[in-house]
Amino acid sequence: MKVKNIVLLGCGGFIGSHLLDRLLADGGYNVVGWDFSADKIAGHLDNPKFRFYQSDAFSEGTAADLDNAVKHSDVVISLAAICNPSRYNTEAIATINSNFTEVQKLAEVCAKYKTWMIHASTCEVYGRTMASYLPDNSYDNPALYEQIEDETPLIMGPIQNQRWSYACAKQLSERLLHAYHVEQHMPITMFRPYNFFGPRMDFIPGRTGDGVPRVLACFVTALLDGTPMKLVDGGHARRALLYIDDAVDALERMLQMPQAAQNQTFNLGARQNEISIRDLAVMMRNAYADVSGNPAYRSHPIIEVSGLDFYGKGYEDCDRRVPNVAKARRLLGWEAKYGLEETINYTVRYFYDEFGRESAAAE
Ligand SMILES: NC(=O)c1ccc[n+]([C@@H]2O[C@H](COP(=O)([O-])OP(=O)(O)OC[C@H]3O[C@@H](n4cnc5c(N)ncnc54)[C@H](O)[C@@H]3O)[C@@H](O)[C@H]2O)c1
Fold it and tell me: What does the DSSP 8-state code read for residue 155?
């Protein structure tokens, strides 16, 4: 099968907008997309190879259009979701609906036409590592923290800690899609992103959106506004960052190699880019000092706040996420190319050019 016609749900988001850039630059794909927002994809709205619905992809009003688009597509890429940690414990019902109930609706349509569904899950399905429940030196043993798609147990915290609503809904979606594949022969691919990082991620509160974005945009906002960068629970949690171009490469390879990609779950991450959130704050303020030419940013204030104060009741963090990407390497020939410094520097430069340069000039 050669993929030509694509339905892309969440095409106006961070991953979706970068993927759309790549698909339309290729010229060989026709894309039908849905999103609430067109802000990040405004440059594509007149492209004849792109049909955009600016609406809820799962509302009753759009069901017939979605059905028709899925019917005529080779693949549906499902990226539309609430995926912001600040909402997991305060809007758990919406989070579960978005990450499970709506996925179920989409899966029903894909199953009806046996259309291949590529679904964005999350590395959060692994929950916390086994090492985090064992004595201190457990992190010396990779078997207790390294995450392998078809082997590693998925460990969620208690129900009252509503922060797990997202991870649990994503996990159930994975189980549902797997069942659709086994029982109804619907082709599926699931991928688990590990902290994709790059330009256009989220929004800058007060400038391009409201609320609390993910950590990258929180730190950028602090640098732009001259407020402290806040480390939740000491910033000890570690994350492995993957530059968005690497992530899009992996998705493009799936589209080019359906045989290899179908009916698999892939970790997409860069274990060599692992960093604590504390060190990330330091690297980001240094990168901002370099790009702005203002060395004062090297000592931009960094403070500690509790998870309770920052996210509210029911928050709990995943301690560490170390992806094993052997499967993506073996089946897709994919591996991350961007290192940590490039990932952070390119991203900070984008946000400075987009928002910081003007603020600096105004001052
Ligand atoms: N970025 C990451 O590092 C990361 C990590 C883990 C999982 N993921 C998953 O990848 C997917 C995309 O993530 P992202 O970082 O691009 O998020 P994002 O918030 O930037 O993009 C999601 C987009 O979906 C849209 N959307 C949500 N519900 C919709 C609906 N009902 N109808 C139409 N549009 C809708 C939003 O408007 C948004 O533009 C999500 O499923 C997320 O859970 C991302």
Answer: B
pLDDT for the residue numbered 359 = 74
Q: From CA 142, how far away is CA 133, in angstroms rounded? A: 14
Region 23-40: mean pLDDT is 97
* pLDDT above 90 for 41: yes
Q: Which atom of ligand 1 is nearest to the CA of 16?
A: 16
Q: What is the atom index within ligand 1 of the atom nearest the CA of 166?
A: 43
* DSSP sequence for 93-121: HHHHIIIIIHHHHHHHHHHHHT-EEEEE-
Residue 291 region by backbone torsions, left for phi larger than 0, else alpha for psi between -120 and 50, else beta: alpha
Q: Extract the tokens encoding 74.
A: 């080779």
As a whole number of angstroms, the distance between CA 265 and CA 324 comes to 12
Distance CA 187, CA 118 (A): 9
Distance (Å) of CA 206 to CA 209, 211, 213, 218: 6, 9, 11, 12
pLDDT computed for residue 334 by the predictor: 98
Residue positions counted in the chain: 363
Residue 34 pLDDT greater than 80, yes or no: yes
Q: From ligand 1's centre to the CA of 33, what distance in Å?
A: 13
List, in order of start, the domains of the chain with CATH numbers. 81-311+318-362 (3.40.50.720)
Q: Verify whether residue 53 is a known catalytic residue.
A: no
Query: Given this model, what pLDDT does residue 136 score?
Result: 82
Coil, helix or strand at residue 358: helix
Q: List the structure tokens of 128.
A: 């916390």
DSSP code for 205: B
pTM above 0.90, yes or no: yes
Residue to mutate (ligand 1; options 20, 79, 215, 347; most atoms within 8 A of CB):
79
